[in-house]
Task: inverse folding
């Protein structure tokens, strides 16, 4: 009788219960998903000008970047200056907005031309990105 109890106890203890480990893994997965920040990037490195009145915008749908050399990028892809308006207009919804990230050394004429092309294409909310000054 005693031998049966020992044999059955040995069989039961040989299995590993994976439920607590899976619970911990799922909790960690949820934690990392929740804490990950999904930031849109323009695709190129831009040194933004500083401004003391810069405010963050949460409703940005499309980022347009202008490099110091005058190249225009839309959501990480280079775009011809003549097609930037139509491309951004197709990506922006009625209540969305576009933000232009112009490099500090970019030509002002190119910035104005991109803004004009966006407005001609029907993008009503256009903003220029700036970095908040420290001081």
Result:
């Amino acid at each position: 009788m005693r031998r049966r109890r020992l044999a059955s106890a040995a069989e039961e203890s040989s299995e590993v219960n994976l439920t607590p480990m899976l619970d911990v893994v799922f909790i960690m997965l949820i934690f990392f998903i929740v804490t990950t920040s999904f930031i849109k990037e323009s695709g190129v490195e831009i040194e933004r000008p500083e401004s003391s009145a810069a405010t963050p915008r949460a409703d940005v749908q499309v980022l347009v970047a202008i490099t110091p050399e005058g190249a225009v990028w839309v959501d990480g892809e280079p775009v011809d200056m003549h097609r930037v308006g139509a491309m951004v207009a197709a990506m922006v919804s009625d209540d969305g907005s576009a933000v232009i990230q112009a490099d500090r050394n970019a030509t002002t004429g190119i910035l104005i031309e991109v803004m004009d092309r966006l407005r001609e294409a029907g993008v009503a909310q256009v903003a220029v990105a700036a970095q908040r000054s420290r001081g």
